[in-house]
UniProtKB/TrEMBL annotation:
InterPro entries: DHH_sf (IPR038763)
Biased composition (Basic and acidic residues): 102-119
Organism this protein belongs to: Methylobacterium oryzihabitans
Top-level taxonomy: Bacteria, Pseudomonadati, Pseudomonadota, Alphaproteobacteria, Hyphomicrobiales
Chain segments carrying region Disordered: 102-123
GO BP term (any one): methylation
Protein's name according to its UniProt entry: Dimethylmenaquinone methyltransferase
Entry keywords, A to Z: Methyltransferase, Transferase
Domain of life, source organism: Bacteria
Amino acid sequence: MRLTQITHHDLDGYGAATVVAAHADPACIVHVPRYSDVGPVVDDELKRLGRAAAGETLLVTDLALEEPTIAFLRRFVAMNRRREPAAAHRLIVLDHHASSTDQLRRQGLEPKPEPDHPGLSRLDLGDPAVVVLLDEGRSATWMTHAHRALFATREADPDRAADLAVMVEAVDALDLWRKDDPRFSSGLALDEMFWDNVSTLVPVGHPAHDPFVARLLLDASRALRGGATPADLEQRVPAIRRAIVDDLMRDEPGDDPALTTRMRMARALARSDVLFRPLADGTLLSFALDAGTFQRVSDLVMAGGRARRVVNVQRAGTMSFRSVDGTALAGARLFRGGGHQDAAGGKLPSGSAFSLADAVAQVEPVLNPPQTAAENSPFAALRNWKG
């Protein structure tokens, strides 16, 4: 059964994703940085599941149950009722936010305590394929590990089990802000390393992104397990990261180990087909790339002849245009922007975007407006003929 995970874009959310990857093979992991994006993200997933022929499993971790998410839970149950039993989807929600219980009660829903598990409660939505667990006393990473039987298809690699346990405990101590816990400083060290590396080398959306972050967390946890202090770990991170990139680039044509790690990855990213969506005029659009990564990758993309103009759209709606033919500024002007001929910026009309598809839907009609009915009519050619 296909598994999709939707999780928060922070250390706890990625910790949960690392646990999942140790026990299953998720087909897709969606990271949500802003809670304002949760509603659109789960709505898109619900539409996709509604079209899916076979039953799938959706795992939601570390996302507070606000009003849009609660509405999604109800719609998911309603959708499942309309499906054949053999094609029913499974939904697993693991949450630990105190606000979730308050929001559920406002919506007339009451989680019930689990008698054998102090602190744990379960929400019954009348569908056995839907499991909603809440535990305010634990992190999402810890909950995902503790309740892995709900989604696991295998046991974790024995060589990694101890590293995984160290990561789970460190993230748990940090995310719940237990400053007196001796593992709290380890959690802080993991958190600093996480934010320094989560978006600067392998972008979200690239197939190597989640494996890269998961291995980084586990290799760092192995160092902590071996007695490394937070200061020791800080010094070791470049070597840990380089070893991971060496493996990622092992079969990459033209890799040059003499370059910096970021330069090497930029070469591979420039050849990737998954980070860019071609628009009707040949412009390539990327979404939420780190600014430094976009600069390097866009230069390589255009130097390689894949496109003459590239645009990167950030979640907050800011846009960066780059070109080799002087058209960056022309594109930016269509989005209330300005700058130089080959390097300019603008702003989305709606103010923000929540996914690559959403960014394309907003940019395409402005850059390449559809022809009017009159322009498409058989008489247009006659009107424009100057013979």
